[in-house]
Amino acid sequence: MIKKKFFLALAVVLCTIALVTGGTFALFTDSTSPADTSFTAGQLVITSERDAGDTVPGPMFYVTAAQGATPSGQPGIYPTGVWAPGDFYMGTLTVYNRAPSTLDAWLVSTQADLQSGNAAMADKLWVEVFHPEMVGSSMTDVKIAEGWLSTFLAGPVAFNKNLPCMLGGNCQLHFKVTFDRSAGNDLQGEELVVTFAVNAVQKKNNP
Q1: 43-81 confidence digits (pLDDT tens)
Q2: Which residues 6+ apart lie within 8 Å of 17 measured at CB?
Q3: How many CB atoms lie within 10 A of CB 165?
Q4: Of 16, 115, 121, 8, which Cα lies nearest the Cα of 62?
Q5: The domain 40-184+191-202 is classified under which CATH number: 2.60.40, 2.30.30, 2.60.120, 2.40.50?
Q6: Residue 28: its pLDDT value, please?
Q7: What average pLDDT does this structure show over 122-145?
Q8: C-alpha 168: how far from its chain's center?
Q9: Whole-prediction pTM value?
Q10: d(CA 58, CA 69)
């Protein structure tokens, strides 16, 4: 079997960006006194960590324990090993909306950024993003986005619905990445490192 190296990094420092986009602006809260009137813009700040039984910050997918190390140097505990065509793995990203954020949020899209390696691999890696939801009486992963990794590298891929991430709360996203069976010998021994960003907008007055 032809084995491929594949390192899909999702480092907490790089994986999220807090955006107010699409013509949506921070809401204002106001306060007044007999002497003056002042206005302060709200903030939208999201952060994240991997969460697959390995909840400390670090890459979500990693080939070796060393590659999965936390910022403090603790090795990752769920390395995938080198990837072969047909392999797939799942990882969980927990997105938090907490101080200094002051606004409820919608999570609206995700995108990837190439850090290093052979970009041609991105055309052979199929990415699916799921959100766990109650369907009937059971918790079910509902697919909210999918596409080749190259599509995520080209720009934001919109979720098929906005996901609420309330102030003080969190929202889980499950990423499944599959290495296409048709990958050829030209990718043998190659490595790819990317980061993902999750984009958010304020929830209030932004249906």
Answers
A1: 777 788 877 667 677 788 888 888 888 778 888 888 888
A2: 46, 197, 198, 199
A3: 24
A4: 8
A5: 2.60.120
A6: 37
A7: 93
A8: 19
A9: 0.81
A10: 6
